[in-house]
Amino acid sequence: MIPHSRPAFGPSFRDKVVQVTKSGHVAMGDEALALEQNIARRVQKERAVAVDSGTSAITLALRALSRKESGSRVGIPAYTCSSVLYAVLAAECEPVCMDCGEDLRLIPEQAMKQAASLDTVIIVHPFGMVEPMAVEAWPCPVIEDIAQAAGAELNGRPVGSFGDVTVTSFYATKPWGGVYGGMVASDDHAFCEVIKAMRDPDGAVQLQDYAGHHQLSDLHAGMANVRLESAGNEQSAREALAHVMDGWFDTGEVAPVAGIHQGNRYRYLIRTAGEAESFINRLMHHGVTAARTVTTPISRLLGVDVPGAEKAWLDVVSLPMLADISESELEQLREAVESCIS
Ligand SMILES: Cc1ncc(COP(=O)(O)O)c(C=O)c1O
């Protein structure tokens, strides 16, 4: 079977694990500090604070933004990873679903109308593509989530440099993935100090609204630091693969999800005119693991009717996007896709 994703952990990852364990310090330390500096530089923010997951990064950012105000209204894309929803709920905020268009990006007029009554908006660059609304002047603070699009650019600037707060994930299959982990970045030093205090209950010198063990271990940070060294090459390999795959589709009903900003090519998405499930099953018979981009849209989880997200769920299939795909795998993938299209 060709897997849907395949993070590769070569000798440099093993060397890093040995180096960190030999140092006798595996909890948060120099590796986490180096990762913070690395990410702050990459997203052009003054400070970054390492945490234990991308979900925690969002929750802590929301808690820091809406201190003491439980029930803050937070805009989130209806068609994105459910971790975003659970992060909002964990921060005791109220999620407000924002719909997507055919290209899976937000619908600008609709989103801006909703923004008028929001306390915070989470802009997610969806599935490695770039969300152009990241550059808009929103009437509320913006958390920019680059978990899937890390490394992509918009208007010559890295994603993650636009929001008031940037969050990302170092989960293994993510573009900057190590094992587990996350990051909150911002130019606001006081805000970053609040995040730091919240991730370390043992360090608290006074009673806080919230604190929990959310530090990132040096073992996990070290793995992410190693991944960052090859992230650019992996992105180039994915871009080359996407270019080849673009040639497999003509103007038929099944077509790649298009858009002006393709981002870091983390995922290769196609629309199937309501056939997502059967398309995935047919690919499976050809030895190809494809997947829905989200298991269940957030709007479905919340029981609200959001038509663009619902349509995306019925239509969209994510094909394997492997930076290290072999020639025989590529041929198998091409044959499988062409046979399913016809
Ligand atoms: C867009 C997005 N944000 C946040 C997260 C949460 O990251 P983590 O898995 O590290 O908690 C994910 C992960 O699935 C994600 O896709």
Explain what this protein looks like in three dimensions.
- The structure is a single chain.
- The protein has 342 residues and is α/β, with parallel strands linked by helices.
- The chain has two domains: 216 residues, Aspartate Aminotransferase, domain 2, CATH 3.40.640.10; 110 residues, Aspartate Aminotransferase, domain 1, CATH 3.90.1150.10.
- It is 39% helix and 14% strand.
- It is built from eleven helices and twelve strands.
- A seven-stranded mixed β-sheet has the order 1-9-8-5-4-2-3, with helices on both faces. The chain has a three-stranded antiparallel β-sheet with strand order 10-11-12.
- Helix 3 crosses helix 4.
- The mean pLDDT is 96.
- The structure holds pyridoxal-5'-phosphate.
List strands and helices in order, with pairings:
Elements lengths: L10 H13 L6 H13 L4 E5 L2 H12 L7 E5 L4 H9 L3 E5 L9 H8 L4 E5 L17 E4 L7 E2 L2 E2 L6 E5 L12 E5 L2 H10 L19 H29 L8 E2 L11 E4 L4 H10 L12 H5 L4 H9 E4 L7 H15 L1
Parallel strand pairs: 2-3, 2-4, 4-5, 5-8
Antiparallel strand pairs: 1-9, 6-7, 8-9, 10-11, 11-12
Helix pairs in contact: 1-7, 2-7, 3-4, 3-6
The structure holds pyridoxal-5'-phosphate.
The site of pyridoxal-5'-phosphate (PLP) has 14 residues, from helix 3 and helix 4.
**SS class:** alpha/beta
Calculate Rg over CA atoms.
20 Å
| Overall average residue pLDDT | 96
SSE topology string: HHEHEHEHEEEEEEHHEEHHHEH
Query: Architecture of the largest domain in CATH?
Result: 3-Layer(aba) Sandwich
Q: Compute the number of structural domains.
A: 2
**Strand-residue proportion:** 5-15%
Number of beta-strand segments? 12
> How do the strands of the widest beta sheet line up side by side?
1-9-8-5-4-2-3
In CATH terms, the superfamily of the largest domain is: Type I PLP-dependent aspartate aminotransferase-like (Major domain)
Which percent range fits the helix content? Answer: 25-40%
Question: Strand count, sense and closure of the main sheet?
Answer: 7 strands, mixed
* Hetero ligands: pyridoxal-5'-phosphate
Segments where pLDDT lies below 50 for 5+ residues?
A: none
Using the coordinates above, name the CATH class of the largest domain: Alpha Beta
Distance between the termini: 21 Å
Based on Cα principal axes, name the global outline.
globular
Count of discrete alpha- or pi-helical segments spanning 4 or more residues: 11
CATH names the topology of the largest domain as Aspartate Aminotransferase, domain 2
